[in-house]
Every structure is written in structure tokens, then in C-alpha cells.
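pipeline: protein-struct stage 2 | run 1193 | Ribosomal RNA small subunit methyltransferase B
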Amino acid sequence: MKKHQNLRSLAAQAVEQVVEQGQSLSNVLPPLQQKVADKDRALLQELSFGVLRTLPQLDWLITQLMSRPMTGKQRTVHYLIMVGLYQLLHTRIPAHAALAETVEGAVAIKRPQLKGLINGVLRQFQRQQEALLAEFATSDSRFLHPDWLVKRIRKAYPQQWQAVLEANNQRPPMWLRVNRTHHTRDAWLALLETSGLKGYTHPRYPDAVRLETPTSVQALPGFDAGWVTVQDASAQGCMRFLMPENGETILDLCAAPGGKTTHILEVAPEANVLAVDIDEQRLSRVYDNLKRLGMKAEVKQGDGRYPSQWCDGRQFDRILLDAPCSATGVIRRHSDIKWLRRDRDIAELALLQAQILDAVWPHLKPGGTLVYATCSILPEENAEQIAAFLKRTGDAVLSETGTPEQPGLQNLPAADEGDGFFYAKLIKR
């Protein structure tokens, strides 16, 4: 029989790889999830994401509770203590179970001599919890974001910055996209209710449903048959501006994992779609999504800056450019973003976005539509990017999305809303 590893020690290792080595949690977690029982995979995910969501709080508490930090080869123990604190603070796991399992994690990481230390720190926290949390509430770390990001968000949204940070620190809602080639949204909602689940519609996006409580995809009526796809409401908003039609030639650039490619084909099943992404590995997800939904598109690996390498001189009726970005609008879904991004990344990303826009614009037919979208909330990647593009591109006209002075539409993350997302619709004269 397969022996399963201590779940808390695996969560500590996952967090350590993100924070210390700059690895993405979506790369680190799947191999670790293979080491626990199927029923425990969701908990391993919750602990890993949760610790990264509340990292500054857990770090601050450890500095109060320990006279010196754990360094070098003992560093994993620092993250194991974080996992323990997170369970005591933010989960319903009984305290005795959280303590026992976390202390046992020291054996799994070959530090059995530190069991007493871990136990002592966590019990001390329990005794001082109230006073510590009151003090933390007035500390600089209370926003649970790196300082550089707090500064940028505060500057961009002087009225709303605290609400944005607060939304980033919440667990995300689960949004679905109903496949209109199978059912209307309301017909599928009725099926959902008969299966004992409740969903809510979105006022602006006609295919979107928000689940009252997140669930596994297997519980969703017709998921395997392609009736429904997991996709945030804001990502679905791209179709509102792209408006694809049957018979058109459409480019989905930076397409992986394929959510928008398949949405184009649900709206316009007879469109000729080319899906391009630079990441060969992530393209496999585009194929998976097309297969599950029974759809066909041409899929190519390619760099958006060099269309001549992959588009064979083609001109497109419509282009969806879901540009590479800081992903600061989807922090609630990917709490590791806060610790993987650096302040200097923003200027580099803005340059890359400008290069792709300039390279792909000549491949849009006159009268054609290009929708520029990001899951960022930072003006440098969004309104400022499009304002600069309009200035240097004589045949580009902004349509339906903002004004030339303040181009684009910016969604901010909110509890019953989609993620942070930006759209600009451009028409070629």
C-alpha cells in the first residue's frame, strides 16, 4: 500500500519553494499532491495558498514568538510553524489536531529534534493570541501585500486601494461559463439547482454563473460533456467587446490555457480560430479544453512579438490579445503572485506588451477589431499602455471602452464580482 507523507510538511515545502526559490505554486503543488491521499489534496492546496495569502501576518507573529529566526537548513521549520499558525488562525481544523500533525511534520523533514520547539511556539501563540492579533492590526504588515505593491495600488486608486487589498485577501468565488451551444444559461441553472447547488447570474456577462459555494467540477451537470467551463466572469467579459462572428478568421494571442479560445467558438462555432501561445507546455491545456468541448481550432506555439514566424502572412478579422501581465488582478486566485512579482517587473512587462501590440496590429484587417485585455489592475499595463499606443498608431480608434484621455475599462476584484481585469477595444480605420 502506498505510504502517504505528512501533509503539513509538504505544505511547508511548497511555500518555501515559492518564497525562497521563486517557483510558481501551480508548478510546485501538483507533484506534492501526488504524495498525499486523494481526499487530502484539497487541504494541501488550501494550506499552501492560505499561508501565502497571509504570509506577512504569519512572519510577523513568528518574529514576536521566537528570539531568532530559523535559517539555513532549518528554514523549512520556519515555514512549518507558519502552516501551524495558519491552521490555528484561519481554518476550522481542531487545535489539537493542527498542533499534533504540524509537530509530526518535523519528523517528515528530518528535524525530529525540533518537535519540542514547534510545539512550544504554537502553544505560546495560543496563550497570547488575543494580544498579538490586536498589535498586528496596527502594524505595517496588516495589508498582507509587499510594500511596493501597496504603494502602486494606493497611487492608482486613492479612494479604493484598501477595498482592493481586502478583496485580494479573500478566498475567490467560483465562476462558470455555460456553453451556449448546449444550453441557455437559465436552462443550465435549473439543472444546477436540481443537483442541489445554487448559482447566481452576472448582470453584464450573459454566460456567467457564480456558485454560492465552490465545488468540484465533477459535481457540475454535464461538465465532462462540455456543457460548462470554469472561467472567471471578468475573463468572459472579453467576448462582450470581441463579438466574434461565424466565418471570420480570428486570432487568440497568448491563448493558453484556452478558456477564451473555446469561448470564441461557443459564440461563433463556424469561426476559423488560430490560438497562439509562447509556452509549449501550457498549450497542452488548450488541446485538452478543445477536446473536452468537442471543438476545433488551429493551435501554434509562437512569440507575439514575431508574428511572421507563425501567421503565414494572414490578416485577421478580429484579434484577442490577452497580454502577458503582472496578474495583479487575480491575486485572490494565485496568492503566490504577491511574492513572485517584483517592482521592476512592471516596466519590463509594459515594454513587452507594447512590442506585441505594435507587431500584431499590421495583421488586423482594415475595419477589424482588436481587443487588448490583461488581468492586471496597474495603469502602466492598461490605460497608460493604450493611450501611448493610440498616440503612435494613426489608424487605431478606441471604441466602446473609455475615452482617449482615459482609455479602456478597468474591473477591480470584489466579493461577488469577477477578478481585476482591463479591456480596450480598438478598431482599425
